[in-house]
Amino acid sequence: MNVIFDWTFAWEILPKLGAALWVTIQATVLGMLLAITLGLVLALLRRAPWRVVSWPVALVVEFVRSTPLLVQMYFLFYVLPTLGLGMSALTTGVLALGLHYAAYCSEVYRAGLESVPRGQLEAATALNLSPWRTSLDVVLPQAIPPVVPALGNYLIAMFKDTPLLSAITVVELLQESKIIGSATFRYTEPLTLVGLMFLVLSLAAAWGVRRLEHYLKRVQGGAR
């Protein structure tokens, strides 16, 4: 009788999948840190009063959003080295994920920034606050909390997009499961474990985002 799921084999391959999972987590966390930071910069630049700044930024954002992530990965990994900008596969993957999702995060930030009542800006001007202090103390504390759920969705989406890194030779979680399957001719156990790992970490990330959202709401409510 053939065993559909071999628990002994599953325990044997778990350390290899765990090492690959760490690569996936690294790519996701570093890519998201780049995305939320660069996304905020892009959103602020796009709202700049000077068209010479806002229009090129808007063009870049729309270009990145309108082209596939996989194509961007290929470009960074295979074209940039010909220009003398070679990077490791993982670094290239993190950069590709960060740049791609920064374009989406910038639109989320822009919606949050535009939701701040104009009266708040007028009050800051009346108080003779500098543009920097106005952004830091008035605009961002009101704009960021409402967009946390959307940013959390992009975090989970980025995590699920990490299998694309295998296209540029990064051995992430799914790629490791395929390597194990091709070597042992058993795909049920590695793919099942990979699916469970993605599910558990996605749910954990969603729970963490909800907790952060509630915390920011309490802080914002206490500040009032």
UniProtKB/TrEMBL annotation:
Q: What is the recorded membrane topology of this protein?
A: Multi-pass membrane protein
Subcellular location, principal? membrane
Where in or outside the cell it occurs: the entry states:
Cell inner membrane; Cell membrane
Give GO BP annotations, semicolon-separated.
amino acid transport
Q: Which domain of life is it from?
A: Bacteria
Give the matching InterPro entries. Answer: AA_ABC_transptr_permease_3TM, ArtM/GltK/GlnP/TcyL/YhdX-like, Ectoine_EhuD, MetI-like, MetI-like_sf
Keywords of the record, alphabetical order, are: Amino-acid transport, Cell membrane, Membrane, Transmembrane, Transmembrane helix, Transport
Report the transmembrane regions from the record: 20-45, 75-103, 191-209
An MF annotation (GO) of this entry: transmembrane transporter activity
Q: Which family does it belong to?
A: Belongs to the binding-protein-dependent transport system permease family. HisMQ subfamily.
Fetch the NCBIfam families from UniProt. Answer: ectoine_ehuD, HEQRo_perm_3TM
State what protein this is by name: Inner membrane component of binding-protein-dependent transport system
Native organism is Bordetella trematum
Q: Per UniProt, what is the name of the gene that codes for the protein in this document? A: tcyB_3
